[in-house]
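User: Hey, my collaborator sent me this sequence without any context and asked if I could get a structure. I don't really work with proteins. Can you help?
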Amino acid sequence: MAQQDSVITETFNKEKARLRNFIRKSVPNAGDADDILQDVFYEFVSAYRLPEPLEQVGAWLYRVARNRIIDRFRKQKQEVILEQSEGDDALWLEAILSIEPETPVTLYEKKQLVEQVVVALNQLPIEQRQVFVAHELDGKSFKQIAAETGVAINTLLARKRYAVTFLREALQTSYQSY
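Assistant: No problem. I've predicted the 3D structure and written it out in structure-token form, which is a compact way to encode the shape of the chain:
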């Protein structure tokens, strides 16, 4: 047990600063970033004490951090303004796309993809875009959206279907190149 504690402490000290920087790139609030970092190391301690050893601890930590960031964004009910393709408005999408360690190539590809998605979303009719954003990005149910907007659920379902079809076609070449 003392040896496990020693390895856990050593890993914490080694990875803490880099992992915090990784999280801060996706989470603008320092308190939220620290909460995520604490969650990651809590999971690390729990997983490290299991009978099966963790392989590639660094990669495992970043994978858990990425998952916690995505969870945080899904839980938050942020108002997403898609009309602007630059700035913090596309932050939610950039956080979700933080799948790989950042290199100049992945940063460029991520920026290009975010821009293409925002352009495609902005090409949707406003009704379709609102339903798509509310359901897919804000995590609202169609029942909630119907209650908020007064639009019938079947109409919302049709609007989302049209939006998904359009986005699939608009982003097909982007998807194939990634």
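In plain terms: The longest helix spans residues 2-26. You can pass these tokens on to your collaborator as they are.
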